[in-house]
Each structure stands twice: as structure tokens, then as C-alpha cells.
Amino acid sequence: MPLSGQLINVLAAVMLLIAFAMLSQRRILSLIELFAWQGVVLAASTFIVAYTTGQGHLYISGVLTVALKVVALPWILFRLIHRLNIRWDVETLINIPTTMLIGIALVIFAFNLAQPISQMASTITRSTLGIAMACVLLSFLMMMTRRKAVPVVIGFLAMENGLFFAATSATYGMPMVVEFGIALDVLVGGFIFGIFFFQVRETFDSLDTRHMEKLRED
Amino acid sequence: MTLGGFLNQLLQMLLVALAAPLLMGWVNACRAWLQNKSAPSLLQPYRVLRKLLHKDAALAENASWLFRFAPYVIFGCMWLVAGIVPVVASELPFAAAADVIALVGVFAVARVFISLAAMDIGTAFGTLGARREMLIGALAEPALLIIFFNFALISQSTSLTTIVDTLAHREFALYPSLAFAAVAFVMVLLAENARVPVDNPATHLELTMVHEALILEYSARHLALIEWASAIKLFAYCAIGIACFAPWGIAQAGDWNALPLAVLAAVAKLMIAGAGLATLEAVSAKMRIFRVPEFVATAFMLAMLGLLLSYVFEV
Amino acid sequence: MEILVLLGVPLLGGATLALFGSRRWAPELGVASSLVTFLAAAVLTARVIRDGPLTTFAGQFFIDSFNVVLVALTAFVAFTTALFSRPYMRIEAERGKVKAGALRLFHAMFQVFTFTMLLALTTNNMGILWVAMEAATLSTVLLVSLYRTPESIEAAWKYFILCSVGISQALFGTILLYFAAEKVMGSGGTALLWTDLNQVKSQLEPTVMSLAFVFLLVGYGTKVGLVPVHNWLPDAHAEGPTPISAVLSGLLLNVALYAVVRCKVLTDGALGAGFAGNLMMGFGLLSVVVAAFLLSRQRDIKRMFAYSSIEHMGITTFAFGMGGVAATFGALLHMTMHSLTKSAIFFAVGHAAQNTGTQIMDDIRGLIRTNPTIGWGLMLGAIAILGMPPFGVFASEFIILTTAMREQPWATPFLLIGLGVAFAAIFGKVQPMVFGETALPRLAHPPALLPVFVHLALVLMMGIFIPPYLAAWYRQAAALIG
Fold it and tell me: What does pTM read for this prediction?
């Protein structure tokens, strides 16, 4: 296997590792740093694919990823954390070793799901499609097992990262206009989350999601 | 079994038994240097062993035969492991027994005996140590197995000899699955050998002990055997790690010409391993006991990931 | 040209109102912006009816008889809602339920929301469709939590998280769709254009397309409010301000269903009829039955009507799933009728709740006495949504039911049960609200209920007599969807 293929595999493995690390992290600051690193790995992988296959639009895509997911979003999140003054999310719905075991099961499921599509793909990165799907599922697990609002949102953003990675591995990315639209959506979403958290905090004096489970079927 | 092979085997077993305390001394010295203290002599563990062997054993009145028998079993298990892991040469006569699954089983036998012996007297700390040891072992053993399966997958065999031979002759490339397995292996090494961050070997606070609590009641020759067995266990783990992850330089059995180089390579690698271990210990703080399952579960998870990745990447 | 006006005016209006939304004339500006949008939509509709399907801007926008119905409907209901919200939000502000900054946000975001919906309806690019749907969610999140009560914050949080997660599934579905399309058409921007995909749909890879459709159905279906991914809907529709409930119920659900149907057309081409249709029928029926039963247990009037929206969307999804010209005609008619009726109901309910100060149905009584217009508006609206003749909802439900009896007889009991339970529940709750005894005095100022009666009049008209050009229009759209 040529060097570029090996490098992409290594980067994909690191992405999966970061997704698992986010599952087991308790400190919210570390979560944001991990999210930024995930963005770096994603951009690096995009640049390598762009260099190897000569697809110019992937360079722009990579720059967009860096600007949005490594710089803008983590900056918004850091500012949010500082102003909201939250540091820890000590409680998770299920304990960490169990979460990891469920994560492993999800990874196996994702690999199985991606197998037929991988075989049909013609990109050099097709073996990483299973990993991208696994990242998406792991982020989803993270969203479901967290009590505080900010880690839930970071899980959602990590899910978008996984989807972007899936797009890059299956089809060398989406058409540029769509990618710009998605980037805009994510950025605006980040802003709106920020504003929304202040509203939550103002109303409930806390960002614990248990306060927001009162509306039920009566 | 050729005479050369037999001599090789004997040589290795003696070498390992004699060199293990030296490795322990080297790790302690490195740790002292990193803490800016003057280190004890490298031969200090030998002196401790000699002192212990001269003493009279003081046994509790209600100690059963298991209590007296356990240290010999443990030492025997560890010596067996050290004898079959390739350190300087592969394809030793005993290597037919060097199946990785059997290896894990031998470690388990040692663990069972020491836990039972600790509970034998009936003191609180012994039972405490036994339960903690079992907790760590319950999670570390599967992790170790999965790590070995990583290699078994690559070399299509669970024999340690075959694994070493296959890995020593592959072209150099980036294998993420092996990287994950390496990290998992280091974590399991720390857990199984009672090193920081799982357990502080130099502690004297009983409530924080895991390994030390198991051997609180032992004295004299029994304690000497158990200490020696711990040193051999550490040596064996380092040797397994080196054999799997950095197998270059290990000689083929019967190839006497390559032997000096192999010995030199082994010594160098062990020194690096010892220094690395000391560094890890120096930069980590001991974890609270109920974080240890998370630590070992992470090791398990990394090993599983490595296994899954080797399926996906077809490497 | 009309598309430029259609999309540009709301966007511009939103930007202007973001700056000047706290002024006294902000609501009037909003109404004007919506009026211009509606006029542009009307002109566009006339053009498409006269000339046939329209593709502009290098194929990025595509209007055919299917989405022009929805474009006209969206622009119209947005306009009437803007009209309604003028006095309504003024009263809310006077009563202190919203602050000045929140009002500015409301007016600006309402226009932006209209823009995103129209963009989703007129775009030809499946990727931009996704972007617009996500943007529609984003623009309404802060509006749902406008009142800053704990319940509204919770509703907005659920809305945000559940819809965003759902839409991410739709993104994955779009990626898979692009993957399948790329194999046939090569990479580049044209591989996501619906018109081009429609040409080559029989060549798209079946396994990939089936997987893609599942993700797209789950994703966009979350926004349609299909059971079991409907949990955000009752809360979001009930806790937001009434104009938002009206447009969410009346318009956004339609747009999401439109997205699903566009994907269904492609999937049917790749897999042959059956797979997509069966899935849609199953989810639709499930929604009808579950919503009907949950509906009967509600105590909050807006939540009850939100569940009614889920039920009607279920019926529409079922009808689209059945396929065939008759069922699709019924589905399209139902989409239109439900939109108009549901928004009318929400207008009436909004005023009723505003007067009595509560949304709990047991506490609202005797609307006829305190304010005859609201009382009659609510009564007629309820009768209309329940599918009583001569209103238009009866016509569409009749078409759908008879087609079901003919083609999918096993489904008819479920539909009938669902409709029956809903009928009993809603009628039983609305009757005492309108005609019961009350001690409240008569209202001082007349509420703006013109939109209510305009909508109901339209629905009545369609029930009695569908103008021939409208009927031809629907038939054309139905034939397109097949």
C-alpha cells in the first residue's frame, strides 16, 4: 500500500480513537480540545486525499474544515464555557466501562453496515467509510449518555464531523456549493446553540438536561 | 531436541532468573534519577533477596499448606513463562508450549494462587488485596488475550515463536492496529505488574495497596520467592512486549553466530523499556481504585479497536 | 426572475427587520414583505401553469406543478400569518410575555424562515434542499423559546436536538444518494440535481438507494412528525407563540413531506414501486393510530391540535405511500386543506388562549359568549379539520379512504379507527370550550380574525367545488409523482 493510503488509514484510526476518547472524557474543556483535534485530523485527511487524487475542490474543503471546525467552533465553545462557568460533567447515564463496551458493539455494527458500500466505492479512501460511520454512531452514543447540555451539543458536532468524513471517503466530498451550505448551517447552528444555552441557564440556573424532562405525556 | 537447543533453553532460563532483579534495580534507579534523588545500587535487589533467604520464616498459626506452597507455585509459573518467551533466540525446545493463550493461562494460575494464599490467613488486608487483584485481573486478562489475538491475526498462529518470526520479517509500514495494540499492552503491563498509575509498588499505606497487600503476611524465603517472581513477571512482560513490537535482532535457535548480537540487542531494548517504564511512572499519579476498571477497560477497548481495524484495513 | 423576488424579498425583509425590528412599524414591514412574496409566488404559479415546468439559474432551481402548489400555499399562509401576528404579538408584548428584543427576533426570523422554506421548495439540488431544511429548523429554534418559560425552553431544546439528529440522518442519506448518482453521472454539481437524477433513476444502484431512502425517510420524517420520531412536535407546537405554531404545523410539515416524496420518486425508479411506498404507508398508519390515541389524552389545546397535525401528516404520508394518481391527488389536496385549516384553527386558538390567559382546555369555556367571532372560528375550524362535509378536508379524506379500500383494504380499519378516535376527542373537547358556561366578560377590542375566515372559506370552497384549473393542476402533479 502506498504511503498516502497508509497515512489515511492512520488518520482514520486516530479519528476513531478520538471518538472513543470523547466518550470517556469527563472534563468539558478536554472535550472541546478533542473536538478541535478531530477537526485537524479531518482536514489533514482531506488534504492528503486532495494531494493524491488531484481534486482541487478538496483543498478548499479542507481549508473550510480548518476554519470552521478547528478555529471558529472551538472558539465559540470555549467562550461559552468560560461565560457559563461550567467545567465538569461528572455524571453520565451509564458508567464508562459499559459505555465503552456498547461503543465497541456499535463499531462492529458500523463496519458491517459499511462493508457493501465500501466494496462499490472507487475512491482510495473507501476502507475508511466504516470508520466514519462508527464515528457517527459513537457521537450519537455520546449524545444519549450525557447529562449536561454542552457535551450533548459537542456530540452533535462530532457527528457532523463523522458525516463529513463519510462523504470524503465515499465520494471525495460533496459538490462545493453543498459543502458551503453545510458549513454555513453548522456555523449558524453553533451560534444559535450559544444563544440558546444562555436562555437555558437563565431559566433553570443550570445546564443539566434533567431539568428539561418535565414535558411528558400526561 | 538437539543439544544446542537444550543448552540454549537452559541458558535462557538461568539468564532470565538472574537478570530479572537487575531489571528491577534498573527501573528503580531510573525512577530515582527522574525524581532527582541519588539511586540505590543496581545490585540492591540481589542484596535484598540474599537477606531474605537467610531469615527465619514466621508463619501464622492458622496458615494452611496452601500458604506455604503458593510461593513455589508462583515462582515456578513465572520461571516457566520466562523460559518460553523468546528473549535472545526463538525456536527454543520449550517453545511448543509458548502458545499465547497458554501464557495468559499460566499468569492466571499464579494470580489464583497468590489471591488464595492472601485470603488464607483471614486478615482483612489480605482479602482486600485479593479482591482488588481479582478485579484488575478480570479486566486485564481479556485485554491481554485480545492484544495477543491482534498478533495472531497477522501471523495466522497463536504460537509466540511464529508471531516473532512473522513480525521480524515484515516490511516496515505504518500499522494503526499494532499501534493501538501497543498502547493497550503498555496499559495492561502497568496494571498487571502493579505499577503507577494502577498501584504504587513503594507504598506502605495498606488501604492503597493492591499487590503489596497480598504479600503482607509473607516473610523470609517465601517473601524472597514472591519478590523474585514479581521481578521475573516484569521481565517476562517486557520481553513479550519487545518480542511482539520490536522483534528485530532475535536470533534463530541454533544460530550461535547471531547470539552475541541478540544478547546485545536484548540488553539494549530492556534498558530502554525499563527507562520508559520509569518515565511513565514518574509522570503519572496513582488513580483511585474505582477508576482502575475504567483504565483497564480502556486498554481492552483499544485492543478491540486494533483488532477491528486490522479487519477493515486488511493489513 | 420571479424566483429572485420570491427568495430575495423574505431574506431582505429578514435582514431589515433584524436591524429595525423593535420599531413601531416593524410588523407592518413584515406584512408588506410577506405580501410581496405572495404576489411573486402568484405570478410564478400563473407562469408555471401556463408554460409548464421551469428550470432556471443553470438548473439550480426547478418548479413543476408539484412544488408550485406548495410554493403558492406557503407564501399565502405566511402572508396571512404575518397579518394575524400583527395585532396578536402587539397584545403579547403589551402583556409582558415577550420583550422588545424578542419581538425583533420574531419578526426577523419569521421572514428568514419563509425564505428557507421557499428555498427548500424551489431548489433542484438535493444538497441545498438539506441545507434549507436544516436552516428552517435553526431559524425557528429561538422562536419556539420566545416566551422564555421553562416549558418553552425545554420544547426548544427537544426540537433542536431531535430535529438536528434527524436531519443528520438525512445528510447521510443525501451522501449515499450522491454516491449512487456519481456512479452513473460522474462527480460534480449536476449529480445532485433532481431533474437529472429523475432521468437516470432506473440506473441507480438498488442497494445503495434503498439504504439512502431509509436514512432520508428517517431524517426528513423526523421533521414531518412521523411516529416514532415525533417527540419534539407536540412540545414545539404548543409552547411557541401562536404564529409559529401555525407556520410549523401548516407549512414546515408540508415542506418536509415534499422532500420525502421527491426522494420517493427517485427510489421508486431505482427499486421499482413497493419498497419506498410500503415504508411510507407503514409509518403513516402508525402515526395516524398513535397520534389519535395520544390526542384523546391531552389537556392543552395546542398540544391536542399538534397531535392532530401528526395524524393528518400520517394520513398524507400513507396516501403518498399508496401511490397511483387517485391517492396522490388526494394527498396533495389534503396537504393544502390541512395547511389552511390547521393554521386557521391555530389563529382562533391563539386568540382564545390570549383572552382566557391559559391553554388548558378545561379552563376555557363559553367562547361564543365572550367573543362570538373566536367561538365560531374555532367551532368551524374544528369541524373542518375533523373531516366533516362540506369542508375540503372531507373531500381529500374521502378520496384517500376510498382508494385505500380499493387498493390496500387491510389499512382501512386503522385509518377509520384513527379518524374516529380523533373525531370524538376533538369534538368532545371543543364543544364545551365554545358553548359552555363562562363568567368572563366580553372582549374589549375585536381580534384580527380575518385570516381565519379567509382560510376556512377557501377550504369550504374546495370542499364544494374544485375549480377545473386547480383540479387539472393537482392531476398534473399527481401524474408527475406517479
Answer: 0.83
